[in-house]
Amino acid sequence: MNIEFTFLSLIIIIASYFIGCINGAYIFSKSVKKEDIRTYGSGNAGATNALRTYGFFSGLLVFLIDFFKGMLAVGLCYIFKQSSFVILLSALACVAGHNWPIFMGFRGGKGVSASAGILVIVDYRLALMAILIGFILALITRMVSVGSLTALTLSAVFFIVFKVDIFYIILSCILCILSIYQHRLNIKRIINGNENKLSFGKKDK
């Protein structure tokens, strides 16, 4: 267990929060569409709402922006040889920046894309396996929330079962809990049978 923490560690964690604040959906809607995506659809500044509001390619672009910022936050830790404890804190700071960005009045997204990027760089084999299962379920049910919750839940399960670093297990569990909290309204709609479903025929506008 490595819990080494330096001043550089603190700088990286703070930087990770602001990296998380780079919200793909908000930037895209403001710069390209000249509007705030939070006034449309679910009101969420994330890839799923961008997909529903603007179409597949717009949603994909937003997903990639948020996915790679998660990878960047953890990647900085690897570049500067930080401990797994610092990786845990930096990853959570990045997701916090996405969910509660200071520049957007603390109204961001749900953190799924950023969490996926984080988990892939931490252990790509376990993360990709979980994401693939979640993706298949999302296609079958046509509910992105089902796929997202499944992917993050399975990531936590896989990290525990395959006994990765304890701080990575803690990270995966916290990301799962955060996702469940952020999707609490979606979960209610799933239970009630009225969760929003994707229409695969929608074109970009």
UniProtKB/TrEMBL annotation:
InterPro entries: G3P_acylTferase_PlsY. Keywords: Acyltransferase, Cell membrane, Lipid biosynthesis, Lipid metabolism, Membrane, Phospholipid biosynthesis, Phospholipid metabolism, Transferase, Transmembrane, Transmembrane helix. The chain crosses the membrane at residues 6-28, 54-79, 85-106, 118-140, 152-181. One of its GO terms (molecular function) is acyl-phosphate glycerol-3-phosphate acyltransferase activity. The keyword Transmembrane applies. It catalyses: an acyl phosphate + sn-glycerol 3-phosphate = a 1-acyl-sn-glycero-3-phosphate + phosphate. Belongs to the PlsY family. This is Glycerol-3-phosphate acyltransferase. The lineage of its organism: Bacteria, Bacillati, Bacillota, Clostridia, Eubacteriales. The gene is plsY.
